[in-house]
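Fold this sequence, please.
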Amino acid sequence: MGRTSDRNTELVFEDNLKRATSPMVTLMLLSERPMYVYKLSQELERRSNSSYKMNFLYPVLYRLQQQGYVTEFSQEITEGHRTRNYYSITDEGREYLDAMIKKYRELLSAVDIILTGSGEVETSMPTESGLE
Protein backbone atom coordinates (compact mmCIF):
# COMPACT_ATOMS: atom_id res chain seq x y z
CA MET A 1 0.00 0.00 0.00
CA GLY A 2 1.09 3.53 -0.69
CA ARG A 3 1.65 6.23 1.82
CA THR A 4 -1.40 8.23 2.84
CA SER A 5 -1.20 11.90 1.94
CA ASP A 6 -0.84 14.41 4.75
CA ARG A 7 -4.28 15.82 3.92
CA ASN A 8 -5.92 12.39 4.19
CA THR A 9 -4.13 11.78 7.48
CA GLU A 10 -5.43 15.10 8.82
CA LEU A 11 -8.97 14.26 7.73
CA VAL A 12 -8.85 10.80 9.31
CA PHE A 13 -7.51 12.27 12.56
CA GLU A 14 -10.16 15.01 12.54
CA ASP A 15 -12.96 12.55 11.79
CA ASN A 16 -11.84 10.23 14.58
CA LEU A 17 -11.58 13.09 17.05
CA LYS A 18 -15.04 14.36 16.15
CA ARG A 19 -16.48 10.87 16.40
CA ALA A 20 -15.01 10.53 19.89
CA THR A 21 -16.07 13.97 21.13
CA SER A 22 -19.42 14.38 19.37
CA PRO A 23 -21.53 12.85 22.18
CA MET A 24 -19.83 15.14 24.70
CA VAL A 25 -20.27 18.36 22.75
CA THR A 26 -23.83 17.44 21.81
CA LEU A 27 -24.76 16.83 25.44
CA MET A 28 -22.99 20.04 26.44
CA LEU A 29 -25.16 22.09 24.10
CA LEU A 30 -28.31 20.26 25.19
CA SER A 31 -27.43 20.89 28.83
CA GLU A 32 -28.05 24.58 28.13
CA ARG A 33 -31.47 24.14 26.46
CA PRO A 34 -33.40 21.75 24.22
CA MET A 35 -32.52 22.09 20.54
CA TYR A 36 -33.41 20.66 17.16
CA VAL A 37 -30.75 19.18 14.90
CA TYR A 38 -30.22 22.16 12.62
CA LYS A 39 -29.81 24.48 15.63
CA LEU A 40 -27.31 22.06 17.18
CA SER A 41 -25.28 22.08 13.95
CA GLN A 42 -25.36 25.88 13.80
CA GLU A 43 -24.26 26.20 17.43
CA LEU A 44 -21.36 23.79 16.96
CA GLU A 45 -20.16 25.74 13.94
CA ARG A 46 -20.67 29.14 15.56
CA ARG A 47 -18.90 28.29 18.81
CA SER A 48 -15.99 26.66 17.03
CA ASN A 49 -15.55 29.36 14.39
CA SER A 50 -16.63 26.80 11.78
CA SER A 51 -13.95 24.30 12.81
CA TYR A 52 -16.33 21.74 14.29
CA LYS A 53 -18.84 20.73 11.63
CA MET A 54 -20.74 17.48 12.05
CA ASN A 55 -22.67 15.83 9.28
CA PHE A 56 -23.69 12.88 11.42
CA LEU A 57 -25.68 14.39 14.28
CA TYR A 58 -28.70 12.10 13.89
CA PRO A 59 -26.77 8.89 14.63
CA VAL A 60 -25.17 10.58 17.66
CA LEU A 61 -28.56 11.69 18.95
CA TYR A 62 -30.15 8.28 18.33
CA ARG A 63 -27.32 6.56 20.21
CA LEU A 64 -27.59 9.02 23.12
CA GLN A 65 -31.35 8.47 23.11
CA GLN A 66 -30.95 4.66 23.22
CA GLN A 67 -28.56 5.06 26.15
CA GLY A 68 -31.11 7.17 28.05
CA TYR A 69 -29.04 10.38 27.95
CA VAL A 70 -31.34 12.29 25.60
CA THR A 71 -35.09 12.49 25.06
CA GLU A 72 -36.94 13.69 21.99
CA PHE A 73 -40.15 15.67 21.82
CA SER A 74 -42.10 17.40 19.07
CA GLN A 75 -43.33 20.95 19.17
CA GLU A 76 -45.69 22.68 16.79
CA ILE A 77 -43.92 25.65 15.22
CA THR A 78 -46.55 27.01 12.82
CA GLU A 79 -50.29 27.38 12.66
CA GLY A 80 -50.27 24.84 9.83
CA HIS A 81 -49.37 22.19 12.40
CA ARG A 82 -45.80 21.91 11.24
CA THR A 83 -43.75 20.30 14.01
CA ARG A 84 -40.09 20.25 14.85
CA ASN A 85 -38.31 17.52 16.84
CA TYR A 86 -36.33 18.80 19.80
CA TYR A 87 -33.79 16.95 21.87
CA SER A 88 -33.28 17.42 25.58
CA ILE A 89 -30.68 16.05 28.01
CA THR A 90 -31.84 13.75 30.82
CA ASP A 91 -30.54 13.66 34.39
CA GLU A 92 -28.54 10.54 33.45
CA GLY A 93 -27.20 12.48 30.47
CA ARG A 94 -25.97 15.25 32.77
CA GLU A 95 -24.15 12.71 34.94
CA TYR A 96 -22.64 11.07 31.87
CA LEU A 97 -21.60 14.48 30.50
CA ASP A 98 -19.83 15.36 33.76
CA ALA A 99 -17.97 12.03 33.69
CA MET A 100 -17.02 12.48 30.02
CA ILE A 101 -15.71 16.01 30.57
CA LYS A 102 -13.62 14.82 33.50
CA LYS A 103 -12.17 11.92 31.51
CA TYR A 104 -11.63 14.14 28.44
CA ARG A 105 -9.64 16.65 30.49
CA GLU A 106 -7.58 13.89 32.10
CA LEU A 107 -6.73 12.37 28.72
CA LEU A 108 -6.05 15.75 27.14
CA SER A 109 -3.66 16.56 29.97
CA ALA A 110 -1.92 13.19 29.59
CA VAL A 111 -1.52 13.71 25.83
CA ASP A 112 -0.12 17.20 26.43
CA ILE A 113 2.41 15.76 28.88
CA ILE A 114 3.44 13.15 26.32
CA LEU A 115 3.69 15.69 23.50
CA THR A 116 5.70 18.21 25.48
CA GLY A 117 7.98 15.57 26.94
CA SER A 118 7.46 16.94 30.42
CA GLY A 119 6.61 13.56 31.91
CA GLU A 120 9.17 11.21 33.39
CA VAL A 121 10.99 9.29 30.69
CA GLU A 122 12.77 6.01 31.21
CA THR A 123 16.39 6.60 30.26
CA SER A 124 17.70 3.04 30.12
CA MET A 125 17.76 1.43 26.72
CA PRO A 126 16.19 -2.01 26.28
CA THR A 127 18.46 -4.83 25.26
CA GLU A 128 18.11 -6.57 21.92
CA SER A 129 15.87 -9.23 23.43
CA GLY A 130 13.66 -6.55 24.97
CA LEU A 131 14.63 -7.58 28.50
CA GLU A 132 16.93 -5.67 30.81
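The beta strands are 70-76, 83-89. The CA atoms of residues 39 and 106 lie 30 Å apart.
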